[in-house]
Specification:
Helix content is about 55%, strand content about 0%. It has helices at about 5-15, 15-25, 25-35, 60-65, 70-75, 80-90, 100-105.
């Protein structure tokens, strides 16, 4: 499992409007293509360079293919990256803040690993 690779997927897809639409319409195909073509590409290099060893686990592929943000959170994906991508994909299907509230409710059973500073 690689939190880095999950975050890299979320980050790179979210920053490309065409990839956002592609992922919305064909999640499985986009995940497969991205893993083959982009996962091992080193970002921000002047000359294209690639590594050869990074790949998703089956659990990560399933969560990405199914747009399962709760599973992605459980796998360690950064919640901000997941939320911003999923807002870009699904907010248009809902009323104002409706998607964000549903996203939060789906994660409500989880707790942060940080101490409660509000008390």
């Amino acid at each position: 499992m690689s939190k880095y690779l999950l975050d890299k997927f979320l980050y790179t897809v979210d920053r490309d409007p065409e990839l956002v639409e592609r992922y919305r319409e064909d999640a499985a195909g986009t995940v497969d293509w991205w893993e083959q073509e982009m996962a091992n590409q080193l970002l921000n290099c002047a000359v294209a360079e690639k590594s050869t060893w990074q790949e998703f686990t089956e659990e990560e592929r399933r969560a990405l293919r199914e747009h399962d943000h709760v599973a992605l959170f459980g796998l360690g994906a950064h919640p901000f990256l997941t939320l911003t991508l999923f807002i870009a994909m699904f907010e248009r299907d809902h009323g104002p803040l409706e998607y964000q509230r549903a996203y939060g409710r789906a994660l409500q059973h989880l707790s942060l690993p940080y101490p409660d500073v509000a008390t």
